[in-house]
Amino acid sequence: MAQRYGGKFSKSNESMRDWSGAKPRRSRFAVRVVAAMAIPLFIAGVLELTSGDVISAIIEWGAALGLGFAAWLIDEGEKAQEAFEARQIAKPPSFPRKIFGSVVIGFSVFAIYFGNGDLGFINHILLAGLSTILALVSFGLDPMRSKGLEGEDSFERERVAIAIEKAETYVVEILEAGKRIGDRNLTDRVERMAKSVRTMFRTIEDDPRDLSSSRKYLSVYLKGARDATRKFAELYSRTKDKDARAEYEALLEDLETSFSQRREILLLENRTDLDVEIEVLRERLAASTLKP
Amino acid sequence: MNPASLKRFAFFGLVIVLVIAVGTAFGTAG
Q: What's the predicted TM-score (pTM) here?
């Protein structure tokens, strides 16, 4: 039987969602169970069709599609929540996918009972409501409030959140293009580079004043890296050009070094700020103790 | 009840409701 390459220490596909320190996904199993319910429903629809009940068949297929869609929505909501939790400054997801997914589960249950059961309209609604509530409790609600945006410099923090969100899309696109290269070593290198980029994001989030001096890194360099990775993946998967590979490896090396150097500079600047503040305060304290 | 147990409990409830719903669908189809 075919076996996936990898072992205990190999990187898994989850690296695409490596938000540097994020917890592993929680409700994956639960989401799969909900999605799996669509299969017997679909078969029930086929049986309805063979017995000549077209309306019931359509309702059951609709409910099966609804459950599949709800599972997908909740899964996407979990991903968005994971990204939200990994960041120090973040806005809530624009669309509450988990809540909407739970409501779709309720509608699907209503459709199934409405099409088949004879419990009465009110009971159908009650069952649909019950399943929505159970889904909401088991999958949880989406993050609703932004975090890390409060405080004196909330405007600055909001600017940081927007800039990092945009930069994060470049990183995801770079990782996606990296997977298309078709060379495990190079893909790993790309992932390592992405990791150092994301570490720099966290440093900027820690101190929003770093944003203006790092804008070039968040936009121009990352955009360039994305375009280069896309072009290289396209070329290398067809030609296996060794010169292009060497050049691309050098670019990755440069990017990784410059991003980690930038991060060190930012940390150093923060340290200098702290030193200055301490010095000023100590001088003032010394001055006031000298006064009679 | 701690939140994790509540989540698990709710999930089991959801699965039961879904299984009964699917069972009903099969019942009328068969």
A: 0.62
